[in-house]
Amino acid sequence: YVTAIDHVGIAVPDFDAAVQWHRDHLGLVLAHEEINEEQGVREGMLSPAGTAFGTDTAIQILAPLDDECAIAKFIARSGPGLQQLAYRVTDVEALSAELRAAGVRLLYDAPRHGTADSRINFIHPKDGGGVLIELVEPAAAAH
Ligand code: V0V
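That is the input. Now the predicted structure with V0V docked in place:
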């Protein structure tokens, strides 16, 4: 099911400052940006110059929209930093079903809305070796 590392997510307090830092120091380009109200985030996908958003691995900048969302809680507990590792998958429902059957806890009963109309679910960090693992089925692969 897993075809690539889709993105690595960094929790930040200030979206614009983080985007500018990565542009100024590393030359990363903001390839995509959106607000996800359900997840409580303003999020942006950064790509190294010469790579393509949606094809190559991206860096996801995640800034909280309010004090209650997952990113706000993460920053309050751990400070800014790496928050998630996201794998691109061909079929998020089928993989989730196999994981559940193997006793791995998924956060959602059904996939939710993710970046660029992808469908997403997460493996609980306690079952992911201390890593919050996101499963991303891109919109193009929707069935
Ligand atoms: C919490 N823990 C983590 C963690 N967050 N460990 C590794 N990485 C993280 N990001 C640990 C925490 O330290 C606790 O360990 C334990 O997990 C359980 O914590 P909890 O207090 O029960 O739960 P919360 O309130 O910290 O919530 C954790 C979860 C939450 C993972 C349930 O963050 C969540 O629902 N995340 C999924 C949604 C999300 O992250 N959305 C933002 C990105 P100890 O202290 O007990 O040892 S949105 C996105 O990625 C989009 C839109 C996209 O890509 O398309």
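The chain has one domain: 2-141.
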